[in-house]
Amino acid sequence: MQTRWKCPNGCGGVLAPTRPRKDDVRRYCLPCSKKTGRLVERFSPAMEKKRQKRAQVSKEKTKKKAEKAREAERESYTVEGVDMRKELKRVVRLPVFGGPKGKLAKRPPHLEVKNGLRGGMLGLAYGYSNRIEISKNQRGYGPKIAKDTLIHEVAHIYVDRVMGRDTSTHGPTFNKIYRQAYYEYFKEHAPGSATGPWRNTQDRWCIA
Questions:
Q1: How far is CA 92 from the centre of its chain?
Q2: Is the same domain home to 98 and 173?
Q3: Which helix (H) or strand (E) is 113 found in, with range?
Q4: What confidence tens digit (pLDDT) does each residue in 138-154 have?
Q5: Same structural domain for residues 104 and 170?
Q6: How do residues 58-71 score in pLDDT, each as one tens digit?
Q7: Same domain? 158 vs 84
Q8: Which of 94, 98, 164 is nearest to 127 (CA)?
Q9: In a domain, 199, yes or no
């Protein structure tokens, strides 16, 4: 298959294969090459148009693939319709946790969202490793409970890592911090116990 190759300087074109050999003289405009002292390579408008089309298609595929990957990642961190990564950024900046310049905001806990946690827990916090686990299986409690679970676990991290208090898991210190964080976030007082008023069918606390 042949196509027309043109000189970039506007000289007359020639017919040549779509993929001519490198030593094919039709690849070059010899008169222009003689004038400049350097090889002047011809180009094929039809081939260039196809190349640009392929490049555009490839660009769109790459964009769609990147969007799909971002959507998959966003979905992996979504619990009850809530992107927990965004909520974590908001929660660690609450005044009770030191605000935007506080230690939690500067070094937020690592967030992991899993399909399920041991004991049917909705969330777990590990102060020693600065890590929070949130269960995707919130049993249909809704977005507010998912956010509350995150606040609860961040409160654990704050008490354990920032305050450095040797206190019981859900003792007075934790209870005070959690309730203040809940109020600052939801603009209402936390209902029930600091471990949450929502229990599972085995009457065990769902939040740790």
A1: 18
A2: yes
A3: strand 110-114
A4: 777 899 999 999 999 99
A5: yes
A6: 999 999 999 999 89
A7: yes
A8: 164
A9: no
